[in-house]
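Hello, quick one for you while I still have it in my head. I'm working through a protein record and want to make sense of it properly. Would you mind checking whether the tokens look sensible for this chain? I owe you a coffee for this, so here goes:
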Amino acid sequence: PRPGHADPTAGSIVLGPALDAGEPAGEPLRLLLERLRTRDDDARAGVVRATASLARVLDRRLETIEIGAQAGLRAVARPGDDSGTGVARGDQERVGPSRAAVRAAVVASATLLPEHPDDRILDEISAWSTIAVDRHRLRDRLRDLRRSGWGDVAGDGALLRVAAARAAVGRLLAATPDLEPLASPDLVVAAGGAWAVCPGPVVALALADLVRRPGVSQYAYDHARLLGPLGTIADEAERQRMLADLADDLLVPLGSVVIAGEVRAGRNPAGRAFVRAGGEQSELDLVAGGLQLVDLPPGRSAIAELRFRDPVVIGARGRRFEVEVSGGLGGLVVDLRDVPLRFPERSERRRQLLAAWQGAFWPGLER
């Protein structure tokens, strides 16, 4: 509104691009509206900028998935893009002689706790729940969680929160197909309060259940929620220096996840894995449709050699792969489940399967 104007609702006219202008159609108008909406201290805009800067500092491809109480955020960044092309969403920041390219989107429906969840959202949450709960009871539990965000964080409350977080990630991915990276990111970062009540390995499993791309990625968690505040540092060089100084403490390493596609069922075992760390070597069978866990503590690197009976896809198609992996709270996970996941039609069998997968990552979990 113009200062001193009698009518506070009256304002200036902003001329913008046409609704169908640009490629894809409407993208210039969306970017303009995004810039008008975002403040300099906007936390989610800070996460986007910090993701771009961190990609440059680490020289790695990054994907950040943040689930909060009001919305969800997805940001995909790569360390450099000299051509200056390929930015579909978000902004593009110049870093030294090259660019840190980042594409991002905020999706309101990808909130952890929808204010008025309809039957579709309730069904999505129930589909990821390891406990039986009807719609009416689930709606009441979500309403209570919304009133007291940090209440009911043990037992069934924690399980329902994880189910709601999975459903929110699903809505976020469904709303942002144009952000899908061409290759598996080197690092997938989980952020937001949705993950605060569950063990780190469960966070990695929850994302691997939904972000199913054949390849190898390291997973980490923004446990102190510093990406947003660090992203509000206006000067890019200063932001990079701060991220570099905090690199060892900024993110909690959750481990590495190897997802194989086109694994043929019925071959048990489907192959063998040899994991060499230091002077030690461990071996394990690779079972189609299952998860294999290797204890690999944070800060430790290893070489994983995977040998399959039939060709599979892990970035490329082949029978033998040798990849470098890093440890974390969840160690190394070799995921030979379907891409995307397929579940039994019966809800009880589905819950049992989800509980079996989750139980391997959640010590002391009874359900």
Observations:
- Residues 82-99 have pLDDT under 50 and may be disordered.
- The chain has ten helices and 13 strands.
- The first helix runs from residue 27 to 37.
